[in-house]
Amino acid sequence: MDLEKQITELVMNAVQETTKKIVGEKLEQDIFPTIKKRITEEFGYLPQIHAVRVNNAKAVKIKETLPPCFDSILKYAANGNPVMMTGEAGTGKGFIARNVAKALEAGFYEVNAVKNSYDLTGFVDAHSRYNQTPFYNACKDASEGRKAVFLFDEMDCSEPEVLKIFNEAISSLEFTFPNNEKLEFPNLIILCACNTFGTGNDEQYVGERLDASTLDRFVMVKVDYNRKVEVALAQGDEALVDFIDAFRNQVEKNGLLFVVSYRSLKRITSMKGILPLKQVIKECLIKSMSDDDLESVLINIKGMEKNIYYRAAKGENVSVPTGKAGK
User: Fold this and answer.
1) CB 213, CB 168: distance < 8 Å
2) Distance between start and end Cα atoms, the chain
3) Dihedral sign computed on CA atoms, order 100, 102, 104, 106
4) What three-state secondary structure class fits 165?
5) Helix, strand or coil for residue 5?
6) How many angstroms separate the CA atoms of 47 and 62, rounded?
7) Do the beta carbons of residue 186 and residue 140 sit within 8 Å?
8) Are 300 and 253 in contact (CB under 8 A)?
9) Could you read off the pLDDT of 288-318 as tens digits, one per residue?
10) pLDDT digits over 41-89, tens only?
11) How many CA atoms lie within 13 A of 46 on its CB side?
């Protein structure tokens, strides 16, 4: 199937170049989207292939649709700058971090919302065995000259004592672990992901206030929802993306504390055509939203009366046409 998609992608590129030569650039801009849509309907959505080159290293190919902020995050990280990615839940911060590791051909290690210091540093058990952690393994790799990326996900949801230990470690780029092993890791690539901006709780997210010295150690990059990423996650179904974007925007306008993330989009994409669409939208998107809030959101979304996902959200029995988007 991968070979079929690669061949299809080459054909699409050739068709676009040939179309441009025959009809000119202006007409090509009008015609090619129709051709591309038709091929997508027949063969499925084709992800982009990025040739990523960092500094003078060899180019690495990544077969993913990446948001515009990826290049900045990659360049900061590759040049020794810890990066704090901020943004709403489900905007793909972990996805970005994993692809930074791919681009740098580095090992990838991750922890999530650490509540106890030993989950970060490890511990020696009653049998004198040291229990390792992703942070230890990342530091170990870096100390021995191997490339490593460490992601502290949901850093702002971790306990203050854990943050203090982590801050001290990245300040000196060395740490003595509970097994009495002192590791120095000046080349460890450090990323963190936060739903808040390090300033504590806001209306939607709970987060610890990060002290000024911690914030000062990071470059802060905002990660937003991106349509190209959404279309890739929806396997080219732009009608679904149109509805998700409109739903999210109206939720925000209504001031509702409700997350409409990439995760919802992926779940709907994976289940449409398998379960009734009305059920999928209810269980993957609407979830616990009250009937009154849902009605208020839907009544203010304009121009989507024919969109099947909008209709399914209203409770209509609709289905996705086989092999086609939902318009």
Assistant:
1) no
2) 26
3) positive
4) helix
5) helix
6) 10
7) no
8) yes
9) 999 999 999 999 999 999 999 999 999 999 8
10) 554 445 566 666 666 666 677 778 888 899 899 999 999 999 999 988 8
11) 23
Token readout for 148 is: 């490593």
DSSP string, 244-280: HHHHHHHHHHTT------HHHHHHHHHHBTTB-HHHH
Can you tell me the distance from the alpha carbon of 100 to that of 103, in angstroms, rounded to the nearest whole number?
5
Distance CA 52, CA 204 (A): 35
Residues of the chain by 3-state class (helix, strand, coil), percent to 5: 50, 15, 40
DSSP, collapsed to helix, strand or coil, labels residue 175 as strand
Residues 286 and 313: beta-carbon distance below 8 Å = yes
Both tokens of 111, joined, read 């922890």
How far apart are alpha carbons 185 and 321 in whole angstroms? 54
Mean pLDDT of the chain: 83
Contact between residue 316 and residue 285 where contact means Cβ atoms under 8 Å apart: no
How far apart are alpha carbons 249 and 90 in whole angstroms?
Answer: 15
0.90 cut: is pTM over it? no
